[in-house]
Amino acid sequence: MKITWLGHSSFRIEIGGQVLLVDPWLNGNPMLPEDSHAAATDGASHILLTHAHFDHVADVLPLARKQGLTVVGQYDLMAHWEAQEMIEVIGFNKGGTVDLGGVKVTMVHATHSTSFGSDDGPRVPGTECGYMIAGEGHVIYLSGDTDVMADMGVFHELHQPDIGILCAGGYFTMDMRRAGYAARKFFDFKTVIPCHYRTFPILEQSAEELVKALPGVNVIEPEVMEPITL
User: Fold this and answer.
1) DSSP string, 164-219
2) Sequence-ordered alpha helix ranges (H) in the chain
3) d(Cα 135, Cα 149) in Å, to the nearest integer?
4) 3-class DSSP assignment, residue 108
5) Could you report the per-residue pLDDT of 60-91, keeping only the tens digit for each?
6) Where does the pLDDT of residue 124 fall: very low under 50, low under 70, confident under 90, or very high at 90 and above?
7) In this structure, are residues 111 and 129 in contact, taking their beta carbons and an 8 Å threshold?
8) Could you tell me the domains of the chain?
9) From edge to edge, which strands make up the β-sheet containing 97-99?
10) Rg (CA), the chain
11) How far is residue 95's CA from residue 182's CA, in Å, rounded to a whole number?
12) What's the pLDDT at 23?
């Protein structure tokens, strides 16, 4: 399995014979050079969307159309896109599990917000979420944008994730301190990868506090376009 950070909250996850693009933000992403876009998306099979803020959704429809990718996400928005945008989708909801062929994905709760702009003001398409991604003997908890939740204890009991990809930049989501608390309090991760940080000055720039909060856990500060093999 390979996990490649594309900057911000975007990831490329190669698992179980599939290549999943998580919240792929390419154009305008200050962390991802334009000459890396093709390599970042090459061979992708699915897009996983956690919510509809611009820094998560901006490139979803263009990629889906250009590469014929199936978009996986919350039912309300997926049903709308299937009807209006004529793309392939898998729409489901929290607590549901879908099999992508060698990879099982369960949608779980997150606490954040979700909207995108329109001529009539903000549109709220469904709700925000996270995912449990199971394959190759691993379970990845992809938090999406969220704060700490007691629900995380339930997630651990049900799924036993060994890898956590946690938003940790603060201001819009958990910061490093809160992400460290969540990981220590509710989970038993072997590996933690922070995200949603370093993108803008307003966000945290280092995972040092997260590392200190999790002794014995392999906290990996990812580098853009450098695969992490687990």
Assistant:
1) EEEE--SSSS--HHHHHHHHHHH---SEEEEES-SSSTTS----HHHHHH-TTSEE
2) 37-41, 54-57, 60-67, 75-84, 151-159, 176-186, 208-213
3) 25
4) strand
5) 999 999 999 999 999 999 999 999 998 999 99
6) low
7) no
8) 2-229 (3.60.15.10)
9) 97-99, 104-109, 129-135, 138-142, 163-167, 191-195, 218-219
10) 16
11) 20
12) 97
Q: What is the pLDDT of residues 183-230, one digit of tens each?
A: 999 999 999 999 999 999 999 999 999 999 999 999 999 999 999 999
The Cα–Cα gap between 160 and 89 comes to: 28
Lookup result for tokens 């014979």: 17
User: Which uninterrupted H or E stretch holds 21?
Assistant: strand 18-22
Q: Tokens standing for 221?
A: 């500060």
The band of 14, judged by pLDDT with boundaries at 50, 70 and 90, is very high
Phi–psi pair at 70, nearest 5 degrees? -85, 130
Which of the four pLDDT bands, split at 50, 70 and 90, describes residue 142?
A: very high
Rounded-to-integer distance, Cα 177 and Cα 141, Å: 18
* pTM given for the model: 0.96
| Burial (CB count <10 Å: 0-12, 13-18, 19+), residue 10 | buried
